[in-house]
Amino acid sequence: MPQNEYIERAQKLHGKRLDTEERARKKAAREGHKQSENAQNLRGLRAKLFAKERHAQKIQMRKAIKQHEERNVKGAAEEKDPSNPVPAYLLDRANPTSAKALSSQIKSKRAEKAARFSVPIPKVKGISEEELFKVVKTGKKVHKKGWKRVVTKPTFVGPDFTRRPVKYERFIRPMGLRYKKANVTHPTLNVTVQLPILGVKKNPSNPLYTQLGVLSKGTIIEVNVSDLGMVTASGKIAWGRYAQITNNPENDGCLNAVLLV
Amino acid sequence: MATVLPPPSKRQKREEIERTTTQVDVAPILAPELGSFKANFVDSDGNQMTDVIEINFADATEKNISVLLNTLLERDREEFTPYRFRIHIPGKDIIVDQYPSDLLGLLKQHGVENPFETTITLSAEPQAVFRVQAVSRLAHRIPGHGQPILAAQFSPVSSGRLATGSGDNTARIWDTNTGTPKHTLKGHTGWVLGVNWRPDGQQLATCSMDGTVRIWDPEAGKPVGQPFKGHAKWVLMTAWQPYHLWRDGTPRLASASKDGTCRIWVVNTGRTEHVLSGHKSSVACVRWGGTDLVYTGSHDKVIRVFDAVKGTLVHSLTSHAHWINHIGLSSDHALRTAYFDHTKDIPATEEGKREKAKERFERAAKINGKIAERIVSASDDFTMYLWDPTNNGTKPVARLLGHQNKVNQVQFSPDGTLIASVGWDNSVKLWNARDGKFLKSLRGHVAPVYTCSWSADSRLLITASKDTTLKAWNVRTGTLAMDLPGHEDEVYAVDWSPDGKMVGSGGKDKAVRTWRN
């Protein structure tokens, strides 16, 4: 593999070889034979690598062929009668019903989103990535690379959490900043109970923080409320409810939240 | 004892003295002397109607000038026709469509310095003598169909009968005066895609997904004869032969089908007279013109004009770039209602009826004294073309650009002056029928507009849309006259009765709704 542009430079200075087009054409013509020779004769690791590449190519080829086929067969596919009665001007047209389903899906999603975020703390000042992450350099003395990040704010990791192999983990969540319990206040009953955290549902700053489990003010977490003895409308015992964090846990050292009912 | 009024207070006494002693300024109360202008009246063909006359600006309201013109044309008081005027600005090429309340101001605005000495040309458009009121309320909601309603049409005889076709394989006739179903026409084995009343209202034709066309007697609710079988695939639309063209004592019917052919049936015998083939794709629309020409528009982007007597091709109009969805005919309303009109006097004899139907057709189709029946075709390529096949052959008269999405339907107004087009871009557009110029865009719908229907006096337009509302528009001002929500789901078909009394609509919610004023 060329490390620099010496090939292009030479071509610009001295021009191309007189038979480059011929050679390129002949090389392209040999491609098929070369491919089949490789497929049949490679062994070991190289065979595996080749097979992987070839598999990906074949998937793409099959997709393209299928699309071409669909284009030719279009007439036959549209012959079948539509199921819902439609007037003459709507026959033979792409389904209006699927479009309606899509729009009603989008509308219900928007409604859901809107409802879920009617929370006690609606707006939160976001945390920037420079503030959250501290860069940790790894590698030997001269060739240090800075792709590792340490999270400087409290996080939640979950009970069955094991770190990635240390060489490959990008985000380090220090044990000292991990929280398992939250002081949850029930808004109407005005009692505060310490409840174990089940997971982080949404961090309003950044979806990346949600994935990492960063606990900041305004984050929605799920807590285990079986201690409170709450029962749902259908009679079942509720054991998980959402709560929103109301303090800055990195400053206080404890996690306070209010239950969302 | 008589009632004694309290004596006037000091303020009242003071005001009284002021009023009696000071001289009132009379000038602002009197009408200002604005001068006058000379008016030259031309009709829609450009011919001068009467002598040039001088009119005061102070008296120059549209109504007054209309009365003046009627008097100049020496008409009796009973024969007065209301006129609308369009002002040709002298010296320039501008034509103002809306008659302004301040004519002098308008002229000054357009730079006419001395209107007193100029002759202003006013082109007069006769309006329908009767006036249709905008429908405003839901009169009846009549359930009955088991599947969405796909087509609806009022009988030309009276607004008391409405026929609807539905996906439950039946067509039903409703009595709209009482809001009850009259007959259920069973027989089809596929969705009924179209219903079409005979121009004299004595028969009803229905076409269906099962490839047949059936004729029914609407008063008895029974089929007439055998179903017309012959098409290979479903039949999309039918068109009756106009009343004044019937030969051999029998009407004829044209039907358009997905198999690419159009068939002309002799209704009394049920025989196929001609098969108009040549289209390479589904024929979406068929219209029977008043000069015995059959116009068929197809998904193969071509409109074919056939001679109905011989069954041969006359013209092949190829200008569109995509499917033809609909064809509008300039004499559509006149042909649909044959000898029925607002005066409600029906001729006694057969010949009288034919004469009246022919006369109505000629009045609708004549331009400059010559019969020029025009068609406008709406297409999926977002444009429409205005054609005059009898005079202009295969060259379109005008190309109507402006829609941002497929155009679904296009209708000429009953008086032949306007074209309304509705489409998938949620807008309704109005065009001048003479030269195809764009007039107005009516916006209000929030989903594709499917169909439209004109009122009989051409002043109002009703549109039905996917957003479940009907909207009645006043086309003079270009504004919404009435918004008619009420349907629970998409509205597929709407029709304004030819006598203007009510509107009938049907859609996906399977219930027929009639609307009245």
TrEMBL record, chain A:
BP GO terms, sorted: ribosomal large subunit biogenesis; rRNA processing
Coiled coil as UniProt keyword:
no
CDD domains in the record: NSA2
Q: Taxonomically, which superkingdom? A: Eukaryota
Q: Which GO terms describe its cellular component?
A: nucleolus; preribosome; ribosome
Q: Where is the composition biased (Basic and acidic residues)?
A: 1-36, 66-82
Q: Which UniProt keywords apply?
A: Nucleus, Ribonucleoprotein, Ribosomal protein, Ribosome biogenesis, rRNA processing
Region annotated Disordered sits at: 1-44, 60-88
Q: Does the keyword Ribosomal protein apply?
A: yes
> Where does the UniProt annotation locate this protein?
Nucleus, Nucleolus
Q: How does it assemble?
A: Component of the pre-66S ribosomal particle.
What family does the database annotate? Belongs to the eukaryotic ribosomal protein eS8 family. Ribosome biogenesis protein NSA2 subfamily.
Instruction: Please give the function described in this protein's UniProt entry.
Output: Involved in the biogenesis of the 60S ribosomal subunit. May play a part in the quality control of pre-60S particles.
Q: Which protein are we looking at?
A: Ribosome biogenesis protein NSA2 homolog
Q: What is the lineage of its organism?
A: Eukaryota, Fungi, Dikarya, Ascomycota, Pezizomycotina
From TrEMBL, chain B:
Which sections of the protein are WD repeats?
142-184, 185-226, 228-275, 276-316, 400-441, 442-483, 484-517
SUPFAM superfamilies this protein is in? WD40 repeat-like
Membrane-spanning ranges: none
Question: CDD domains from the xrefs?
Answer: WD40
Asked if the keyword Nucleus belongs to this entry, the reply reads: yes
Q: Which InterPro entries match?
A: WD40/YVTN_repeat-like_dom_sf, WD40_G-protein_beta-like, WD40_PAC1, WD40_repeat_CS, WD40_repeat_dom_sf, WD40_rpt
UniProt entry keywords in alphabetical sequence: Nucleus, Repeat, WD repeat
GO terms for biological process, alphabetical: ribosomal large subunit assembly
| GO CC, one annotated term | nucleolus
Subcellular location(s) of the protein: Nucleus, Nucleolus
Q: Name one Pfam family in it.
A: WD40
Q: Where is this region: Disordered?
A: 1-21
Q: Which domain of life is it from?
A: Eukaryota
User: What family does this belong to?
Assistant: Belongs to the NLE1/RSA4 family.
Do you know which PANTHER family this protein is assigned to? NOTCHLESS PROTEIN HOMOLOG 1, WD40 REPEAT PROTEIN
Name of the protein this chain belongs to: Ribosome assembly protein 4
Q: Species name for this entry?
A: Sordaria brevicollis
